[in-house]
Design brief:
- By secondary structure, this protein is an all-alpha fold.
- Helices cover 72% and strands 0% of the residues.
- Helix 1 (6-28) packs antiparallel against helix 3 and helix 1 packs parallel to helix 4.
- The longest helix has 29 residues, at 46-74.
- The relative contact order is 0.22.
């Protein structure tokens, strides 16, 4: 490995760590959906919203890995590519929360 590639590798590793930590942080707050549907009949649908959120968070990380592998195959710099997962993780959590709100009102 050439020394000129070291900053690119450092950015890729740091970006990956940030994305993974953010995914774990968001996944830990998926359980807050239970506050929305605490005493309603929509609580039985809560698993749908939680499953959708966890699936979206995992899919966001997988998509970032796919993009990184594609850049490795094309021999282009990875740089901050793993950070593409962060807005997707936020979106997944919010979509799950909105679904929990809707299903709790049913």
């Amino acid at each position: 490995m050439a020394w000129d590639q070291l900053p690119n590798l450092a950015r890729a590793v740091l970006g990956s760590l940030i994305a993974i930590v953010f995914a774990l942080f968001a996944a830990s707050f998926v359980t807050l959906y239970e506050l929305v549907a605490r005493d309603t009949q929509g609580a039985r649908y809560l698993a749908v919203a939680q499953t959708l959120a966890w699936t979206g968070i995992a899919a966001s990380l997988i998509w970032a890995v796919v993009l990184m592998v594609g850049k490795l195959r094309n021999r282009t710099p990875i740089a901050w590519t793993p950070l593409i997962a962060v807005p997707l993780i936020i979106e997944s959590w919010l979509v799950g929360f909105l679904i929990a709100l809707v299903l709790a009102s049913v």
